[in-house]
Amino acid sequence: MTTTFDPSVGPLLAPEHLPGGNDAPRVDDVRAAAYTVPTDHPEGDGTFAWGSTTIVVVHVRAGGMEGTGWTYGSTATVDVVNTDLRGVVLGADPTAIPAVWEAMVASVRNNMRAGVCGYAISALDIALWDLKARLLQCPVSQLWGQARREVPVYGSGGFTTFDTALLDQQLELWVEQLAIPRVKIKIGESWAGRTDRDIARIHHARQRIGPGAELFLDANGAYTAKEAIRILAEVADAGVTWIEEPVSSEDLAGLRRVRDCVSADVAAGEYGYDASYFARLCSAVDCIQIDATRAGGYTAWHRIAALAAGHHLQVSAHCAPHLHAQCAVSTPNARHLEYFSDHARIEEVFFDGAAAPVRGELRPRTEAPGHGMQLRSSASEPYRVR
Questions:
Q1: Which residues pair with 69 in a beta bridge?
Q2: Would you state the pLDDT for residue 22?
Q3: Which class does domain 15-137 fall in?
Q4: Which listed site, 17, 19, 113, 303, has its alpha carbon 20 to 30 Å from 314?
Q5: What is the pTM of this model?
Q6: If residue 326 lies in a helix (H) or strand (E), which one and from where to where?
Q7: How far apart are CA 385 and CA 309, in angstroms?
């Protein structure tokens, strides 16, 4: 059911009250579809396991051009886009993205912005920035201005469900074939019920990648603070430089305790969706993780990155590597982005213009307008579920 807004209730809610002159192009189509792609092997981390990944792709059209955005999450995101948010975005000026963003956020108040609604807003926002850049015939990174030409990546996967052979295969791909000098593996198996295997896998990964590559860990909130501190003490000789979500990202006191007791940088933030949370998180970690496909798109990314800079912190992009490359190169305090195996595999098959990193860095396309990527229908349609 599409909501009709009373503009007297709040600012910039209805399309006719959004900025833009009478001759400005207006959004004339909004649509979304979901595609579920099976994993090559069963995958899991410290607190969850899965056998497929769902990508929700959003298209927004205006002025004869089409912008594309996407997120990873429930197929219910399609309904939020096609039903709840479509009426907010249709008729809007696609160049007035902050106003459209505020209107979308206001429209989901009673359904909660966290979760599915946030994913939908994020994908739409990214599609709008892509559309705006295509209308202006420039790369989307040029709208913000580039701080660099490419952004460092780290190979990410190393699932707890992988045996030694699969783990080695993935580590070899990253370090030897793609020359990525930093990798991350999952630990905290079975809610920290297999710390013996965690420790063995950490030592094995260090041996396999050699001394020249950085070793990152991700516990996905499986440990208590003291458990995380003990584990890192036991693997001190492995030279771990990054520990992600050693405790739940909601446990800010626990994150602070781990941060203050270990030499590795503590990171969290992938589940954050509003500025208030990130403002609190800045006092608990060494690096802020932002997921533009969850937190509110490119619009939210830049706001959160600026907030982190105000606390003298760097930011790192969580997953969706090819979408994040565009905003990361425009962010002076961006440290790196996650070349997550699931998302990298899907994006490089589904989208023209998505290419693998070179020598450990990902360079977004600048010779094409927008974010430079286009959905390949021939590749995606067999996986369409909504």
A1: 58
A2: 61
A3: alpha beta
A4: 113
A5: 0.93
A6: helix 321-328
A7: 40
Q: Which two tokens stand for residue 352?
A: 């023209």
Helices (H) and strands (E) in the chain, counts: 16, 14
250-261 per-residue burial string, b: 16 or more CB within 10 A, e: under 16: ebbebbbbbbee
* Cβ atoms 209, 183 nearer than 8 A: yes
Domain 142-372 sits in CATH 3.40.50.10680:
no
Neighbours of 156 (CB within 10 A): 28
What the block records as the tokens of 79 is 């309904």
Token look-up 């990171």 returns 267
Question: How is the beta sheet containing 49-62 ordered, strand by strand?
Answer: 27-44, 49-62, 65-72
Task: Write the CB contacts of 218 (distance below 8 Å, at least 6 apart in sequence).
Answer: 45, 46, 156, 184, 185, 186, 187, 243, 244, 245
CA angle (28, 32, 37) in 5-degree steps: 155
Q: Rounded distance, CA 130 to CA 36, Å?
A: 23
Dist CA 355 CA 333 (whole Å): 24
Is residue 16 predicted with pLDDT exceeding 70?
no
Q: What is the pLDDT of residue 9?
A: 31
Residue 351, beta-bridge partner list: 375
Taking the C-alpha atoms of residue 107 and residue 13, their distance in angstroms, rounded to an integer, is 8
Closest of 130, 124, 138 to residue 90, by C-alpha? 124
Instruction: Read off the pLDDT of residues 59-69 as tens digits, 9 standing for 90 and up.
Output: 999 999 999 99
Residue 114 has pLDDT above 60, yes or no: yes
Query: For position 164, what pLDDT does the model report?
Result: 98
Q: How far is CA 317 from the centre of its chain?
A: 6
Give the SS3 label for residue 52.
strand
**How do residues 150-160 score in pLDDT, each as one tens digit?**
999 999 999 99
- Per-residue model confidence (pLDDT) at position 157: 98
Each domain of the chain, given as residue ranges in start order, spans 15-137, 142-372
CA-CA distance, 309 to 303, in Å (whole number)? 10
